[in-house]
Amino acid sequence: MSKNLVIVESPAKAKTIKKYLGKDFEVLASYGHVRDLKPKEGAVDPDNDFAMKYQVIDKNSKHVDAIAKALKKADALYLATDPDREGEAISWHLLELLKNKKLIKDKTVGRVVFHEITKKAIREAVDNPRELAMELVNAQQARRALDYLVGFNLSPLLWKKIRRGLSAGRVQSPALRLIVEREEEIERFVAREYWSVEADVSSKGQNFSSKLIRFEGEKVEQFTIDNSERADQVESTLLSKAEGKLLVSKVVKKQRKRNPAAPFTTSTLQQEASRKLGFTAQRTMRTAQQLYEGIDIGGETVGLITYMRTDSVNLAAEAMAEVRDYIAQRYGSDNVPAEPRTFKTKSKNAQEAHEAIRPTSIERVPSALQGHLSKDQFRLYELIWKRTLACQMVHATLDTVAVDLSAGEENIFRANGSTIVHAGFMAVYQESVDDAKEKDDDNKLLPKLLEGEMVELIAIRPEQHFTEPPPRFSEASLVKTLEEYGIGRPSTYASIISTLQQREYVEMDKRRFIPTDVGRVVNKFLTNHFTQYVDYDFTAKLEDELDAVSRGEEEWVPLLRRFWRPFKDQVDDKEQSVSRKEVTQEEMDEACPQCGKPLAIRLGRRGRFIGCTAYPDCDYTRNLGDDKDTKNEPEVVEGKSCPECGSALVIREGRYGKFIGCSSYPDCKHIEPLEQPVDTGVTCPQCNKGTLMRRKSRRGKIFFSCSTYPECDYAVWNEPINEPCPDCGWPILTIKTTKRKGTEKVCPQKECGFAEPYDKEDAQSEEE
Fold first, then answer.
1. Tens-place pLDDT, residues 743-755
2. What digits encode the pLDDT tens for the residues 202-252?
């Protein structure tokens, strides 16, 4: 057995590092966290200095046993988990477990840290071990305790006041508030009409346009022209004054510099991957993890990027020198600035212990690695590579020109244009912007114009516009806003977004977040009754305090004490003082048309609706958004009649949602689903005749059953794929997603037990 035992988090990383360290080292994986709080009340004891009760995570107990067994035969233990709070905590938990097993006695124990998986970095880390940083461990424990205390006290309150199965989180709740408040802002928005006036002109055979900036001596603001009549008057006046020509009254030429963006942090990588590649935050981090842990690039397994959880925008001096040399060779020395570029973080609460995310070697050009990388790996690596390269290149130089064109002395149009004199970093990479509106002027080329010359007027065009509401959050803009407010840490953004979706507090529409009815009610309850705890500044201040713990400037137990007592008192008070009706109903200033009692917006199983407060004595309801004069007449299904009695079919709504039923009910009880089954194209493995159809149960749950039913009754809950089980040979596999194991391909035969990780996005990419 090897004399030295090295523990990392993932098997992929273990495999890469083992190759670098040689036969005297055994490298095993912990497979992430080895211990967690007991999943029941009392796992954090506020009355006993917040003592935390841990237990081994079931799925990782076998890995802990393997580590314990290997340690018995080793002389030294090197804890080489990730270089952040979570990694430090994993090392501490593992060490505590091994101490409890009395396996540490007479062993050398060292904590080794590296930010890239290259031979040099690994050897240097092993040669220079340190002790565990307990301040980082304590910061992680404090965060875990806070999240536990909030979740285990607020979530049951939500069950009592709204419905079972809901959850509230210390960081997830302010994020939900951001999404709901943006939606409410959009709903309150009232569009305003405004007009712009443009002149199409021609000079030296080239047509271009200009925008009216002054009219009759007054500056033209956004709402100066706010109706069609005024726009027509302005157009008529300008045409009269111009008489077919405009005078070039002023030409201003300037040279402008544009600097490159900083290298990637966790947050900016998630934002750019969302904008440029369409990746979710989870997909970005999963792919980055693969690039960091090591890829076989043809006989050599190497980590291609540095550690991907970082707030730093700094690059190591050695890396900057390599990048600058590469730029000089590839793009010429005129593209290398005189001094290496340095950047300052804009992130609140930035932890800058690491480098920015960069390639481990700029010499590994993306195109040369393409054959060794998956589609996602290649695209993300190329993004990181280009951004790193661009950040050390010279600025871009642009010539800009602004031309004023006069129609009489008091009416001025302006045309803007620019040309790139020296592309600099723009030859490699340009950062994207959230919700950017196209600026036609940016790259418009204008003919050479001289003051005093006349240009031909082709037309004057009044253009109608309406103000637009602020856009809904995309993943990129939500991540950016969370970072600006200091809510959470960049490494938690993916899980925050995932939790909001899993709890069905938000939905995605065209890659934008929309709060669900349940999300709105939960947010309203938390905002009204736990205002402090969803306050953006309060959440950010708590992050500041956790950072202070990680730096050893503050103790974690006093921090928890300050948080806990006021929070618990508020939970206890709201449990008694707030009724369920207050939370789930919002009284309206409108009387029920049936009984005259007040109406209220209520939360039901299928979302919010308007109902009478006198229920169950009065059963009046209508959909939220319907006019009060709307009659609740069922919608007739066009072109279809009841196959049993010939009457018209109508769309009805029952306790399990909408369905098609006979209009002659109760005399005829024919019903059929509103959504017709969708054919998956997967042959039924039981009868080999039909195909599996995607259907919806009475309770709205999706399942897949044979198209020949009732002749064949085969059915599965999980989505089937046309792929035989490699273990038992059953003709199909299914896609199963659980919180604990993520998405897997599993055999539907219970006695088989086959399961392996499955990336649906990758599979779809390959099909495309």
1. 888 999 888 888 8
2. 998 899 999 999 999 999 999 999 999 999 999 999 999 999 999 999 999
Distance, CA of 733 to CA of 724 (rounded, Å): 6
Amino acid at 604: G
- Answer yes or no: is pLDDT of 653 > 80: no
Bridging pattern class, strands 635-641 and 621-623: unpaired
CB atoms within 10 A of CB 85: 27
The angle subtended at Cα 450 by Cα 446 and Cα 456, nearest 5°, is 65
Rounded to two decimals, what is the model's pTM?
0.75
Residue 764, pLDDT > 60, answer no
Q: Can you list the pairs that 434-440 forms with residues at least 24 positions away whose Cβ atoms lie under 8 Å? A: 434/271, 434/275, 434/474, 434/476, 434/477, 434/480, 435/471, 435/474, 435/477, 440/209
Question: How many angstroms separate the CA atoms of 55 and 59, rounded?
Answer: 12
Helix, strand, coil shares, percent, the chain, to 5: 35, 25, 40
E-state strands within 426-474 = 454-466
Query: Is cis: bond before 616, omega within 30 of 0?
Result: yes
Mean pLDDT of the chain: 88
Q: Alpha-carbon distance 331 to 341, whole Å?
A: 17
Q: Which helix (H) or strand (E) holds 648?
A: strand 648-654
pLDDT tens per residue, range 314-325: 898 889 999 999
**573-581, long-range: CB within 8 Å, 24+ apart, which pairs?**
574/157, 574/529, 574/530, 575/157, 575/160, 578/161, 578/525, 578/529, 579/161, 580/160, 580/161, 580/162
Looking only at the bridges linking them, the beta strands covering 245-258 and 454-466 are antiparallel
Distance CA 246, CA 460 (A): 11
Strands (E), 98-173: 108-111
Tell me the C-alpha distance between 126 and 21, whole Å: 9
What is the distance between the alpha carbons of residues 584 and 525, in angstroms, rounded to a whole number?
9
Token pair 């495309």 is found at: 768
Residue 696: its H or E element = strand 691-696
Cα 10 to Cα 69: distance, rounded to the nearest angstrom: 18
Token duo for residue 267: 């947050």
DSSP characters over 310-369: -------HHHHHHHHHHHHHHH-GGGS-SS--------TT---SSPPB-BS-TTS-HHHH
CA 515 to the chain's CA centroid:
15
So what's the pLDDT on residue 364? 94
Count of H-run helices and E-run strands, the chain: 19, 35
Distance CA 408, CA 216 (A): 9
Q: In angstroms, rounded to a whole number, what is the distance separating the alpha carbons of residues 283 and 379?
A: 12
Mean pLDDT in residue range 704-708: 92
Q: Which of 20, 292, 307, 493 is catalytic?
A: 307
Nearest to 384, CA basis, from 261, 481, 536: 261
Sequence letter at residue 489 = R
Q: Give the pLDDT confidence of 120-155 residue by residue, as tens digits.
A: 889 999 999 999 999 999 999 999 999 999 988 998
Amino acid present at 228: S
Structure tokens, 700: 């709205």
Element (H, E) at 566: helix 556-577
- 656 as an active site residue: the answer is no
For residues 138 and 546, what is the distance between their CA atoms, to the nearest angstrom? 9
| pLDDT tens sequence across 531-577 | 988 898 898 899 889 989 988 999 999 999 999 999 999 999 999 99
Rounded to an integer, the average pLDDT of 649-674 is 79
- Is there a contact between 382 and 389 (Cβ–Cβ < 8 Å)? no
Q: Higher confidence at residue 636 or residue 123?
A: 123
